[in-house]
Amino acid sequence: MNYVLLGLAVTLSLALVTIWSRRYFHDHNRDLEKWKQLRERLSESDLEDLEYCTYQAREVPMELMDRLRLLADDFAEGREDIRFSQRKERRLRRPKQTFADAYRAYRDFVQVPYWDVYEEGWRLQKQWMVDQGIDYAKHLTLACEEIDVMRSAYREMHEAVDRW
After folding, report:
1. Which H or E run contains 159?
2. Fewer CB atoms inside 10 A, N or C side of the chain?
3. In the chain, what is the straight-line distance between the N-terminal and C-terminal CA atoms, in Å?
4. In the predicted model, what is the mean pLDDT of residues 25-54?
5. Which of 109, 89, 90 is nearest to 149 (CA)?
6. Which pLDDT tens digit goes with each residue over 126-159?
7. Residue 67 and residue 87: Cα distance in Å, rounded?
8. pTM score, two decimals?
């Protein structure tokens, strides 16, 4: 009788471990695939390009701004295609929210009337800012600080994924 109960307990334990490990590896692989797709949407070099475009070139491509906006909106809304398994999502929730908040703050700097829309993106209105008494260099510096916050949040997400 004791051997039957012991055998039943071992069999049940093995079944539970098998079910759990299959689910864990399925979730893990799905999370890695989602991270890969997220990195295809936006890379860290895109954020470096954004900083250069903002501060040096003073022209930000519309395509890059659209990708940033869509990703920040997806982070803020918690869309399914960028939501990870529960344990991993807990680690990524704060950097995703930080990224979305920093994008919105950056967007406050890169908008009309400070910047003008042209066919390929946004261009700084330096003369308008000078005429209005706005320190355009400080304006650009503050915008770049928000890019640094986005880059830090992106790196934090990347480091969290590397620990998986």
Report:
1. helix 136-162
2. N
3. 43
4. 89
5. 109
6. 999 999 999 999 999 999 999 999 999 999 999 9
7. 27
8. 0.82
Mean pLDDT of 95-123: 94
Angle at 64 between CA 63 and CA 67, to 5 degrees: 90
CA distance 75 to 81: 10
Q: Which residue has the tokens 């295809």?
A: 40
Average pLDDT of the chain to the nearest whole number: 87
Note whether 47 and 154 are within 8 A (CB): yes
Sole residue written with tokens 């471990």: 17
Tokens of 163: 């620990």
On whether the CB atoms of residues 63 and 53 are closer than 8 A, the answer is no
Sheet containing strand 59-61, edge to edge, reads 59-61, 121-124, 115-118
